[in-house]
Design brief:
The protein starts with 9 loop residues before the first helix and ends with a helix. Helix 13 runs parallel beside helix 16. The protein contains 19 helices and no strands.
């Protein structure tokens, strides 16, 4: 892709900045006026260039204003992408990739949203340089670049999992899965969490690229089982729950240790981790081996599950009525 050297006119830039500031006003009349003006500006192709410029280049502006510019652009892409001139589309793509490592987490996340919105509207096939660029950025020594690329890749894996495993794109998963596994032991918890979340998208579909590396995947999951980061632990639990459904054969040799681990995670101080771990018992209950596996653990498992149960006021009323009913029946 040739480099697009587009630059904004100062008058137009100031007009858009004023609109962005006004759009954050709580006044309904101001909001309506801004919305009307934004719709008028959509008639001008360069408008979207201004929006991406504010997001990626205008570091003198505060982050919420820059992010808002990106979110307005996201909405324009959703509504009008097929009408964008090629040079506008190319400029937006260029700026997204060039700023994927912005120092601001908010701006990086907004750029990631833009990337996946473009992919959703225009397909990965029409952006052949995207995946190679993001993969290359994973190896950057700059944390912001690596994290920004991973954030975008996670969103792409969530939204385009099936496409990534097709011949149309030469099966990029064959490269991506081993690449993601390399980052399970990264020193940043955020990166570790991204890596697991990316791989998790391909478990239920039994992606061939993942199944070829399932033993390495398991080994890395077990390594992270006691990670200090709650988001990492949650993603580890999520992976193991799905593996119960699709690759129980690989879990059986480790099943007793796995049960012990899930008992511990069901009592995790982070509620989101504990809830994810609870799904394990539901998945295991659907397996033929369930009774054999849990018989030796029920005396510890049942109290843990009961302790974690939450009842609404209606649940309590219904339970009391049920107890009364059984009490009356028993007495008679």
């Amino acid at each position: 892709m040739a480099v697009n050297l587009w630059q904004p006119e100062d008058g137009g830039l100031q007009q858009i900045l004023q609109l962005l500031r006004e759009s954050q006003s709580p006044d309904n009349a101001t909001q309506r006026a801004v919305q009307q003006k934004l719709e008028e500006l959509n008639k001008y192709p360069d408008f979207n260039n201004y929006l991406i410029f504010v997001l990626t280049k205008l570091t003198s502006e505060d982050e919420p204003t820059r992010s808002l510019s990106g979110l307005i652009l996201k909405n324009n892409i959703r509504a009008h992408y097929e009408k964008f001139p090629p040079e506008v589309t190319d400029f937006i793509k260029q700026e997204c990739l060039g700023s994927i490592g912005d120092p601001s987490p908010l701006i990086r996340a907004t750029i990631g949203i833009l990337v996946t919105t473009i992919v959703a509207k225009g397909s990965l096939e029409n952006w052949p340089g995207l995946l190679p660029s993001l993969c290359q950025n994973l190896d950057s020594e700059d944390y912001n670049v690596c994290e920004g690329a991973f954030g975008a890749l996670q969103k792409i894996c969530e939204d385009s999992a099936e496409v990534l495993d097709t011949e149309a794109l030469n099966r990029p998963l064959n490269i991506l899965i081993p690449k993601f596994l390399q980052f399970f032991k990264h020193n940043s918890a955020k990166i570790r969490s991204h890596a697991i979340a990316c791989v998790n998208q391909f478990i239920i579909s039994r992606s061939q690229a993942l199944m070829m590396h399932v033993d390495s995947f398991l080994e890395n999951l077990f390594f992270l089982s006691t990670d200090e980061d709650s988001e990492v632990r949650k993603n580890v639990c999520r992976a193991l729950v799905m593996l119960v459904e699709v690759r129980m054969d690989r879990l059986i040799p480790h099943i007793n240790n796995l049960v012990e681990y899930m008992l511990m995670r069901t009592q995790d101080p982070d509620q989101t981790v504990a809830l994810e771990a609870c799904e394990f018992w539901l998945s295991l209950a659907e397996q033929p081996i369930c009774k054999e596996v849990l018989t030796a653990h029920t005396d510890r498992l049942i109290p843990v599950l009961i302790h974690g149960m939450k009842y609404s006021e209606i649940d309590i009323i219904l339970l009391k009525a049920l107890i009364m009913k059984f009490t009356v029946s028993f007495c008679h």
